[in-house]
Amino acid sequence: MAVTDTGRMDVGAKRPSRLFKNMTAKIAAIPMIATALVVFIGCTAWTIYHSFTRSRLLPAPDKWTGLQNYDRLWSENRWLVSIENLAIFGSCSLVLSLVIGFILAALLDRKIRFENTIRTIILYPFALSFVVTGLVWQWLLNPDLGLQNVVRSWGWETFTFDPLNNADIVIYGILIAGIWQGSGFVMVLMLAGMRGIDEDVWKASRVEGIPTWKTYIFIVIPMMRPVFVTALVIISAGIIKVYDLVVAQTSGGPGIASEVPAKYVIDKMFGSQNLGLGFAASTMMLLSVLVVLIPWAYLEFGGKKER
């Protein structure tokens, strides 16, 4: 801080230009910024542009068709089924993952015995790939090998549980596998949030005679809002791009009953060799991602007042 002859502090001298602050960090971030601009933004723009073209096996930027691919996309029953399945899978997965993860975290937060072992067991499915998870649950839900066969061997001969071969409920069979894998990760996020709450909150609730369940619902949950928002974004991103779990369990069957948008895109681009239609479906998936990210960004940054 510089001092002039008159004894006043030179404000301009004490503050270096904001442009040159943290120069090392800014220089280190240049490769990542360049990658994001070129790879992500550039490839996204390239995909959106070619979704308006008649690209087949190879991109055809000169064959402009306007909204033709989008008209065909939304008139195709397979795409509509995939959107319906994604809506069912996504809504159920969001709610159940958050509820189950929170309940498991609340139980572990009571400082139970063998907490580390139990936490590891519950979190273990998250370490598996979706392909492994899909294959495991394909066997478990197989009527000749899995749960149905086990229950019938116990004497309940009329028991039926075969969701993967029933077009009306096959998406719920996939949902079971998704919940089994993802709930442990949500539990860890919730548990970390609970452990970050000041112990004085619990002491005050006990002094006031507030039941434990009310403390969690009316005090702990509002304080864990950032944790819930983070979990919501992570789960939503995984839901939108779900692909390998479906392929491993049902390959989209029976028929197209368990079709999802990501599988539709892959099949159109590499199976049917229709890049234009695949790019159009990819663009619609991008819009669904923005539907998740924009509210999250608003909740995290838009609602905060400047200090």
Automatic annotation (TrEMBL):
It holds the Pfam family BPD_transp_1. It is a multi-pass membrane protein. Keywords: Cell membrane, Membrane, Transmembrane, Transmembrane helix, Transport. Residues 83-296 form the ABC transmembrane type-1 domain. InterPro entries: ABC_transporter_permease (IPR051393), MetI-like (IPR000515), MetI-like_sf (IPR035906). Belongs to the binding-protein-dependent transport system permease family. This is Carbohydrate ABC transporter membrane protein 1, CUT1 family.
